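Known limitations

Structure tokens in this collection are predictions and should be treated as such. Users comparing against experimental data should check residue numbering before alignment. To illustrate the layout, the record for YeeE/YedE family protein is reproduced below. The input appears on top and the generated tokens appear beneath it.
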Amino acid sequence: MKALAGYVAGLLFGLGLAISGMTDPARVIGFLDVAGDWDPTLVFVLGGAVVTTFIGYRLVWRRQTPLFESRFQLPTRRDLDTRLLGGAALFGIGWGLSGYCPGPAVASLPGLSWPLAAFVVTLIAGWWLSRRMNPGH
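Generated tokens:
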């Protein structure tokens, strides 16, 4: 049941990305082009995500335990270290250069193009390299 819930959530997320147009890298790059032909669409998508998360968390925290786990698993670290900041910078640079982040890239796989393939290859390479550098995570 836990795996099914994960697949349904992923499907809903992917559909939301496709319907909102966030699988189009030109739209994302247009959002980042604040000095040129700025496309504000992503602000509304992000706003919808914030509202949904705000409401969702309030509903979830009313429960004693999650539906498919014995307890909630929350992050305990609150510090900012060089690995976190470096990873965030790499993510932002990749997002700005390609117009893709992992969710929209996976949702875009049915319409595979060369830029998308290059992004997915570098995504997998980065994941592999991260696992090699941090064996236990």
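For this record: The chain has a mean pLDDT of 88. Residues 4 and 13 are 14 Å apart (CA to CA). Please report discrepancies through the issue tracker.
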